[in-house]
Recover the amino acids of this structure.
């Protein structure tokens, strides 16, 4: 899925861009809304727009209105302006959802998936080797056997599966889990990985699925 991100806060833009790509979402980012509109008019491959309201050159409400004049593409407002009046105007101008900053990037992914499922009317199941991730049910199966994972084990294992052959540091795993896990210790990450390995019958000394990368973290190699 291709996401058009219009966000002039470059730190926030980079954060969302990198985070969304962890979920196989291709992201095109713009700080200038006029440039984003020009690209949207010429490119019909985008699946959804994530739109800030406080933008240079053109107010986010006007951007939303102009998008609706040329496309029915879903729009999620991502803004620090969280009062009810702004939300009402946003929906009147054609927005499909509204997230008030600050929020966990994980919540944005959930909103994106929910809208895209509704629009495409498809079941969000991804097959990776002998594993399948069902995002609707938040469950992972191995050879059609449902794995009994805790919530945090599901989050970690789905992250590894979605980033096959990519080394993920313990810090990046903790960051992915959200602010409630920001102080999680390396030993806790190792413990959760160990639990996942036990449930998928993986041997840490002769890894078939989750390989330890000494001094850094882990990667899924199955």
């Amino acid at each position: 899925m291709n996401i058009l991100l219009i966000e002039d806060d470059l730190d926030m833009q980079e954060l969302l861009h990198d985070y969304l790509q962890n979920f196989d979402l291709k992201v095109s980012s713009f700080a200038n809304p006029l440039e984003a509109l020009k690209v949207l008019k010429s490119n019909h491959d985008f699946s959804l727009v994530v739109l800030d309201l406080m933008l240079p050159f053109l107010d986010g409400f006007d951007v939303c209105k102009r998008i609706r004049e040329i496309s029915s593409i879903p729009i999620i407002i991502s803004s620090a302006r969280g009062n009810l009046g702004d939300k009402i105007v946003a929906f009147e101008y054609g927005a499909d959802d509204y997230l008030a900053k600050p929020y966990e990037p994980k919540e944005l992914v959930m909103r994106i998936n929910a809208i895209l499922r509704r629009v495409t009317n498809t079941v969000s199941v991804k097959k990776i080797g002998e594993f399948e991730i069902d995002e609707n049910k938040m469950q992972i199966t191995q050879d059609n056997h449902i794995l009994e994972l805790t919530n945090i084990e599901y989050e970690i294992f789905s992250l590894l599966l979605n980033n096959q052959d990519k080394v993920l540091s313990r810090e990046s795993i903790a960051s992915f889990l959200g602010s409630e896990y920001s102080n999680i210790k390396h030993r806790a990450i190792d413990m959760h990985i160990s639990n996942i390995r036990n449930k998928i019958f993986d041997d840490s000394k002769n890894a078939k699925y989750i390989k330890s990368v000494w001094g850094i973290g882990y990667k899924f190699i199955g």
Remarks:
- The chain has a mean pLDDT of 90.
